[in-house]
Structure formats: structure tokens, C-alpha cells
Task: inverse folding
């Protein structure tokens, strides 16, 4: 996802400065999983601004 989504790439770079890269990937994967679950459950479209705001 970070390759095709520049905002996620910059988020990853900021988070990588705070913690290990593997931990950052795990956090992003969990974030994506929660987002997909709620999108399916609520039947709403993906909003990248809201995704990276939380």
C-alpha cells in the first residue's frame, strides 16, 4: 500500500523514526485491517484523509 499511496509512505517514514520498521509495518497492517472491516460493515467508501488521521 505505501508504494501506491504517497500519504501512507510519508506516515510510514515518520513512524519508522519512532520505532523499528517491522513494528511500523505491523501497525500499518493492523490499521488497514481495522479500516477494511469498518468499511465492509458500514458500507462506506474509503477516505484516505480519515484513514491517516487516526
Result:
Amino acid at each position: 500500500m505505501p508504494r501506491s499511496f504517497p500519504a501512507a509512505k510519508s506516515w510510514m517514514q515518520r513512524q519508522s523514526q519512532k520505532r523499528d520498521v517491522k513494528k511500523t509495518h505491523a501497525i500499518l497492517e493492523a490499521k488497514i485491517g481495522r479500516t477494511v472491516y469498518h468499511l465492509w460493515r458500514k458500507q462506506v467508501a474509503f477516505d484516505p484523509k480519515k484513514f491517516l488521521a487516526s
